[in-house]
Every structure is written in structure tokens, then in C-alpha cells.
Design a protein that fits this description.
It holds the Pfam family ADK. This protein is α/β, with parallel strands linked by helices. Helix content is 45%, strand content 14%. Bound molecules: adenosine monophosphate.
Amino acid sequence: MAVLSRCSRAVTAATTPNAAAAKFSYLIRALSPFSSSSSSSSTFDADNGLNSRIKPAVLGTLNREPKDRNVQWVFLGCPGVGKGTYASRLSDLLGIPHIATGDLVRDELASSGPLSSQLKEIVNQGKLVSDEIIIDLLSKRLEAGEAKGESGFILDGFPRTVRQAEILEGVTDIDLVINLKLREEALLAKCLGRRICSECGGNYNVACIDIKAENGKPGMYMAPLPPPPQCASKLITRADDTEEVVKQRLRIYQAMTLPVEDYYRSRGKLLEFDLPGGVRESWPKLLHALNLEDEEHKQSAAA
Ligand code: AMP
């Protein structure tokens, strides 16, 4: 209850971004070490999966040394698109924390704390948790990270509403928003095929997606993403990855989160990336779009 009442006081006061900035002082402290780059746009011409003519200006800074990079990024995209997979790979590559609000919610849910049963009901119906609760969980995570000396972040699953985006914008500058896109036919199958290692949290997929070319539309093949042997016996399925709940989550994305794409698009921060297939095919193209290189991937691909 104490958590709930503190949150509701904070978010009641945070009806405008400025009020939010004053209230979430811990969020501001955690988010402030990096300054933002300009949000101006330029023409983009690489053949790498991008469908936008806008190239966020921050991409020009990515070939700098890690310490000089701006990395305050957000991943957007429908449930099942692969935000967790690519955010976690980028997190490993850049040494920047990957913070998935869905993971924070699931941790809270598993903790049997005061919010646990309330969250279980909301999440298992595919609905969104209130802004109050989600911002409280995120603030605590950022605060804990700050105490450990973390800087920068790759957010996955936040913001999911325009109000969340406004609150975030009120306390820090997001450099880049990567909007992952995947053909609708593949999204449901990807969610239903998702498996999580109950021990390490690794994300895998048993679905083999093979969409045939039709009516001038190209086919698409996405190989399964199998777990390594040490995770194979520990796989679990998320309670909200059932067909009914995934369909509800997709509807909620359209209604509540699609406007967030517009919010960032109009600010010149949105990098739209059409996933051309599975991880093997998409990862190098995403890196190319981000002006990044992954030596380890290059070596394993060449082997
Ligand atoms: P995800 O793992 O991102 O699919 O999130 C799982 C569930 O956690 C969502 O269906 C929501 O119920 C909740 N959740 C995660 N992030 C947010 C957010 N930013 N706002 C509201 N609810 C969220």
C-alpha cells in the first residue's frame, strides 16, 4: 500500500512533464549523465532494411569510442517483434544496460509483494499496467543502476503511451528510438513460440516461420532460435503468450502505443527498421543501420 500511495501522489502531481521532472528527482538523476544530440534529420540512402527517409542525427556519433557515445535509446515495436532480442544484443555489444519494463513487472509479480496479485490480473489479461506503477518500477531500477555506476540505457517496453513518453521527455533527452517492424502474420506465431530460460532469463523461440510469397509480396523465413544446451531443460512459456492474450496485446499496441511512434517521428528521433527475417539476417543489417560493428558476429559468420 505504501508503494501504491507514494506512486499515486507522484503521478497525480506529474500531469505535466515539468511536474514529473520535479517529482521524479531520482529518475532525473539517473537519466541525466548524457546530453542529447540534435533531433534534426537528414536523408538516408543505405539499403539496409530502413524504410524511413529520416535518419536520426545521433547515428553520426556511433562510431565514436563507447565513452563518447550518446546511448539513451528506446526500442518500440509490437509484441513479438523481437525488441528484447535486439535490445539485449545491443546491450552486450555496447555495455549499456538493457531495461525491459516487462521484466520489471514480471519480477514484481514473482516477488509476492503488495502489487503482485494486482499485476498478475492486469498482465494476464494483456492490459497495460498503470503509468504510476510502471514509472515507480522503472525509477527504482534506474536508481539501483545508478548506485552501481550504470550510465545510459536501452529501454524496451517503455514508453508505451504518449503520457509515458511525455514524462520521459520531461526528465531526459532520448537520443534514438528504434522502431522494429515485422509482418503481422509473423507476430502471433513469434509470441506463441517464445520460450524463456527460467534460470538465466534468455529469450528463445521454437517457431519456424515460413511465409510464402503471394500476390507480389515476398516470402519470409525466420528460423527458430534454439536455446543453448544448458537452458534447454529450463524453458518456460510466459502466461501472457496465449493466443487470446497476444491478440489483446496487439490491439492495445495499436490503440495506445502506435501514437508513441508518431510522437517520436515528429521529433526526428524515430529510426524505422523493417526486420527482413530472423536474427541471423536481421542483426547485421540493424548494426549497419546503426553504424555499428560486431566483431564477434563477423568472426562466427565467417567460421
Ligand atoms: P512486455 O514484456 O514488454 O510484453 O510486457 C509485459 C506486460 O507488462 C505488458 O503486457 C503490460 O501489462 C506490462 N507493461 C510492461 N511495460 C509497460 C509499460 N510501459 N506500461 C504499462 N504496462 C507495461
